[in-house]
User: What shape does this take?
Amino acid sequence: MTAKIIAVANQKGGTGKTTLAMTLSGTLGRRGHRVLVVDADPQGSATRWAASAPDSTPFPAAVSGLSAAGAKVHREVKKYVEDYDFIVIDCPPAADSPVPMSALMIADLALVPVIPSPPDLWAAVGIRQVIANVRESINENLDARLVANMCQTNTEVAREALEVMQDFGIPVAQTKLHHRTAYRQAAAFGGTVHALGSKAAGAIVEIDEFTDEVLALIATSRVTAVATTILTEETNHGPTVDA
Assistant: This one.
């Protein structure tokens, strides 16, 4: 089966992009899927995360550093699509980087992590436009979700920002990911929050729910893509009639 490609992108740094990419990838890997994380960020945070794992319990997804591919990252990723079920691309947080555009050209789903605050929403306008441009000109089946990340819902600012996100122009994922030390601990030992057991119960529940939501979105996008292909073929060549 050809891999489904998920691009995790935001042109602002500090939104938890790598944490989202690695926790999602690791959770998919733990469920038995073949997963590749493409570390397209020159900072190499995803690569360091996986390298922190002990040899006895490696990170449950493969990680490949492709930041040097730049605007050709889509071409390099295509080489792996027959070898994995999912490919998750961790894009760099740079407005002038060609990587997000390249990744979105081949992505089935774009995840945009945003901290619920006015400055972070303002900063996400750029990636919203990039997604719109790619969808209009190159990849019409690209789906996208804003992901409320590092939430602190006990503050008035966060609650107001969560409301504003609903009108941002990109649908908001139902699952919110909260500001938890468990995610930083998982990065330190090169694993996922699941290995932390009961002390990471909240993080485990929400990342499992988020993974379920992503899988449902991917399944929907696959059906939509097939339907679009059939409709296009019928429009160009007329409906197929059995002899």
